[in-house]
Amino acid sequence: MSVRASEPFDVVSLPIEELDSGSSVLVSGSDVDALASVFARLVAPTSREHSIVVGTDGVDEVVRTTDRLGGRAADDLTVLTESGSGPRRAGTIKSVDSISDLTQLGMSLSESVSDVNQAAGRFRSGVFLCSDICEAVNDIRSVYQFLNTRFLSDLRRHEAVGACAVDTDADVRTDMDSVVSSMASSFDFHLEIRNAGRREVTLSVSGEHRDMDRVTVSL
Amino acid sequence: MERRVLCVGIGEQLNEMTTAVEERDDLVVVEANEVDTAEALLKKEPVAAVVTAHELPDGSGMDVIDAVETTGTSPPCVLFTNASPADINTERAETVTVEYLRRETDASRLGFVVEDMISHDVQAGFMTPQDEGERLDALESYNIESLPVKDSFDRLTDLIADRFDAELAFIGLVDRDVERFVSCAGGDLDPVPREETMCTHAILQQDVMVVEDVRADKRFSENELLAELGVRFYAGANLTDPDGHTIGSVCVIDMEPREFSSEERAHYRSTQIR
Known about the structure:
The complex is a heterodimer of chains A (about 220) and B (about 270). Chain A is an alpha/beta fold and about 220 residues long. Chain A is built from seven helices and eleven strands. Chain A has helices spanning about 30-45, 60-70, 75, 100-120, 130-135, 140-155, 175-185, and strands spanning about 10, 20, 25-30, 50-55, 75-80, 90-95, 120-130, 160-165, 190-195, 200-205, 210-219. In chain A, a hairpin with a 3-residue loop joins strand 9 (about 190-195) and strand 10 (about 200-205). In chain B, the strands form three sheets. Chain B has a six-stranded antiparallel sheet with strand order 10-9-8-13-12-11.
């Protein structure tokens, strides 16, 4: 039941053109719009796929970009979000009482994965913004536990890829550079947004067989 | 090696859990029909994982998970139920990540998920590096405690404690579940669960890790062990083998918060051992 598909997941307009099943990507930067744009390119579902995104404030932009890329947000995107926030629309919107309740969030994510498994089977998973969750909890270790138990485990067990976005300017009462370094060491790829304009971003790409390429991509 | 899995439920649901788990090699089931029985079993002997129904005669699956938390261990837990997560009260377990499997559709995956959770230590409250397997192999192959380096390490930690005017300086090896200390100037340190250490975070970054005030850092402010020890300041540099695997840290700690200037950081970098 641990499936490593032979067919990789395509990625639009980024220097990582495709991702093998099980791959994880960390996206970090201080421009939230640029983060949303890069993140959306990693999680936007293509045909025969579904996407499940844990979304905080700002996930609206992810949904809009997902739509622009393929127009599948209304059908194939599930967003898990805190009650009262979240996108105006998506295929499915599930609410939890608080984004800091990682137990309920984790169970809702499991339920969504189970639903997707029954239908499409193949999915992209994401957390936008992980830094907002760090801000909401009392102990960042619980976020690491959530990532290990849910996010990274789902990628290992299913035909799936995942992305996690971190706003490096977020005030989470810790050394964000250190947190990003810690997370990056567990992910297969790290895309750091170095410079963001309206129509393009400059990324540093590190990870599997890559060593800090710096690339400018159009959005 | 046999690993015990506690399955809590009644009737057909318990049979389903037990059958699914026992299909896996090396997993042995211990059964309980009630929260009280589960609690007693958990106190008696540790388990590798827990699978529980939500509805139980004397409580709920979340009561079982609450009991797991009180044991001080953290085996992974699966809630195996048709109840929706939205209908489950998670108030008391806000920081425990519980696997949820819908009984109606996911029963066939239960054994696989339990085995995966155990073998990947998913409940860890710390990130692990991509080379964790090789890193642990490297640590085991060196068997540092048997090498004639104790005197050299002791001289190094004395020097570092003096140079940085720190209360304690130590060299710690970060193993799979614990950190153990091969040298310590200024005190004695017993092995510490890896989840509670700061070095497990330090080994994940190339540069030195400095925490100027532990109580103000959300990664460590709720850490009861650090609070008990009175640790307020930490600086750690990597102990790396020739193949690039970081097996531990060279550290200083203080019982008062302190600032670490950029000059001091630069000097501290020189303590990294490669």
